[in-house]
Amino acid sequence: MATVVVIGTQWGDEGKGKVVDLLTARADYVARFQGGNNAGHTLVVAGKKIILHLTPSGILHPDKVCLIGNGVVVDPKVLLEELDRLQAFGVAVAPERLVISAYAHVIMPYHRLLDLAREARKGHSKIGTTGRGIGPCYEDKVARTGVRIHHLLDEASLRRRLEAVLDEKNFLLTHYYRQEPVDLEAVLDEYLGYGRLLAPFVGDVSTCLNRAIAENRAVLFEGAQGTHLDVDHGTYPFVTSSNTVAGNACCGSGIGPTKIGHVVGIMKAYTTRVGGGPFPTELFDTTGEHIRTCGGEFGSTTGRPRRCGWLDLCVVKDAVRLNGLGSLALTKLDVLTGLPVVRIAVGYRCDGAVLDGLPAEMERIERCEPIYEEFPGWEEDLRSVRRFDDLPAPARRYVEAIRDHVGLPFSIISVGPGREETIVVKDPFAS
Ligand code: IMP
What HAMAP family does this protein map onto (predicted)? Predict the structure, then answer.
């Protein structure tokens, strides 16, 4: 079956953008199924850079159909701005090439306000959210008080939805968070305007995908964030508000689990995290600084410096189990060039026991001491290497050690930011 799901195995920012861009060349359809504009993929095409937050990066390939599934939370203003930026970039997006699920939930102004106000009030215990209203929007979805894309197309039903929730939202905003209230008529006006602009793109993503799969067309599912930001399986409460694991490609797009052919886990050659939460292999020294600088580890959505540390295989092995991974894609191996030694955490010591995965309790994760294996580093520039056997011996040993500990093959090894700076070991669509 020509369906591939791409998932981050760590805490997001694993370099999924580049891998998705590579695999998009093989796909006919590219679908997003969770998250919203908390994600950000930086793409470099013909020397020009564009960052996409909502639209699948397949949109840059003129012959691909991109889909935004029901599991995504859509900020229509951000989406429309993105379409404008694409137009200025030379990519005109016709409705035949972008389908937005009528079932997807909409990020409303009060979601953004509540996200920011809540984080500000939490002080030191804040999650460090992206402030885009993601959590409050998913809360409303589950509370059955959300606004869906189809509501934007019908004034009477949008008015009813807003009348049902705005009293409570404004009470919270004004009395608890001391913010200005949101005006129903202004929101109604603004969002009906977005609805008019987005109407040509609204469609039935589930039917479209199932038809494509039945016709044996190649479909790529593009995960956002990473496994350990999953609301169930991640380092709760320092997580995002959606399920980021591969299983949600089904719920978030409207296909059945029998339709998934292969799952690729993207792992960076080291670990990073943005926002709060435990991070056992975090580095606070010059090595961490080297990784941040050489890896350009600054958020593409918020610009925040990312926390950096050694590769943690407990994190990756958990991701293998949680996603049913079939292969791995290793990214940013080149960033480790120049370090005298490189380390991999292969387990933790915690409360007198040895663990090989993250425990459930936040306090216990904070007490986990990584057990490291150490390898000699390498000085050679890797960016021109195109075959695994041509990597310098220490880099090869490092990759082999990861493969042996994790027990999965690598389908892709990325040795630089450019599309061509890649070792393709095996095409995931041929798996
Ligand atoms: P939210 O998704 O904005 O609610 O943020 C919740 C947590 O997930 C915060 O720690 C964010 O930094 C993190 N997060 C959300 N999206 C991404 C992403 O695309 N990459 C990395 N971290 C993310």
Answer: Adenylosucc_synth
Nearest residue by C-alpha to atom 11 in ligand 1: 129
- Which helix (H) or strand (E) segment holds residue 203: the answer is strand 202-203
Mean pLDDT (the chain, rounded): 96
Q: Is 34 in the pocket of ligand 1 (CB under 6 A)?
A: no
Examine the residue annotation and report whether 13 is marked as an active-site residue of this protein: yes
Active site residue 262: no
- Which residue, among 50, 70, 49, 67, has the nearest Cα to 58 in the 3D structure? 67
> What are the tokens at 50?
């564009």
Residue with the larger pLDDT of the pair 300 and 319: 319
> At 418, is the pLDDT very low, low, confident or very high (cuts 50, 70, 90)?
confident
Please report the pLDDT score of residue 51 as a whole number: 87
Integer angstrom CA distances of residue 350 from 235, 284, 347, 366, 371? 16, 21, 10, 9, 10
Q: List, in order of start, the domains of the chain with CATH numbers.
A: 3-96+204-430 (3.90.170.10), 105-201 (1.10.300.10)
Active site residue 141: yes
Residue of minimum CA distance from atom 17 in ligand 1: 225
Tell whether ligand 1 has an atom less than 6 A from the beta carbon of residue 287: no
Question: Would the pLDDT of 41 be above 90?
Answer: no
Q: Identify the weakest region by mean pLDDT among 26-35, 118-127, 277-286, 360-369.
A: 118-127
pLDDT in tens, 326-342: 999 999 999 999 999 99
